[in-house]
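pls read this stuff:
=====
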Amino acid sequence: MVNQVGHVWHDPSIQRVEPPEQQQARQPVTPVSRPDRPSQAAELTPELQEVQRAIEIVRQAPDVREGRVAAIRKLLEAGRYQAPLEAVADRIAAELRPTLESE
């Protein structure tokens, strides 16, 4: 008897029936239609054009200022570099502040 059930299950002439909610879930979704976009591109104000130019310049700038790094390295090697103590203290305080506030 078990063999008969096994054979029926694999019979290609038998089709699987799904509940309507599963059938709907398999239907392709059609994109929502949007109104036609105007054929003209929006024009930017002069201020926004200037901002775009500034952003592009910043993007093209290197992350590291090679000349500044070389100059400081030279001063360090000569023993003549003096760190701005107030800036160093501010940086240390800013990094320690979250730790101190959580205690």
Remarks:
- The chain is about 60% helix and 0% strand.
- Residues 65-103 form one domain.
- The helical segments are 2-9, 20-26, 46-60, 66-78, 85-102.
- Residues 1-8 have pLDDT under 50 and may be disordered.
